[in-house]
Amino acid sequence: MEKTKTTVMLPSVNGGLVPAVKVQERREQGANGTVESQKTTLLPDGAGNWQVGEIRRTTTRQEGENRSTEDQVSLPDSEGKLGEVSRTVSKAEIAAAETRNTVETYSISVPGAVGDGSLHLVERATTAQQTSSSGQQVTEQQVEQANPGDPGSGLRVTTVTIDTVHPGASGAQATRTIQARDANGSFGVISVDTTKSDNIHAIQIQIASSDPPRKEPK
Prior knowledge:
The chain is 0% helix and 64% strand. It contains no helices and twelve strands.
């Protein structure tokens, strides 16, 4: 088990430094490739006492080539009672011909709905990457989100991003196509970007964010 305590000092109105934030971290290696960690953030309450401002718990499991991570965030309510407000579950599965990553986000805040204090699935991002025998690499990410106009209908696909890399003898060419759902519920291509390089290793495909693309003003 590893424990770390950090204190952040900030200048006071009277000069000098005073403690402003305390962070306590604990990391423990469990059985079967499990790692559990907890990060507690403490804030001063103005009366000389320290109160919990946030608790973040992370559990990582490794099973062969597959890996999963669960991240839980708890915050105090108006009465100071701690409660879980969000949870993120990530899974990475590696097969012979495909690598698939899934990230599910749960929250007590559902767009378009009145909160009931319980966690609900509000977003799912699925990324699949395939590499052919010729070296062509295709990465597709689908982002599903709750519909603010009908929050009880579950998730629906809002954006699709497809990245394709074509290797060649003289270099490589990459194409990124982004599709998004419009206000009428229809899908349409909003951007296509192409990159060419004479270095076959210069183009890297990595979709790191599930945020929907922004439409640039014309």
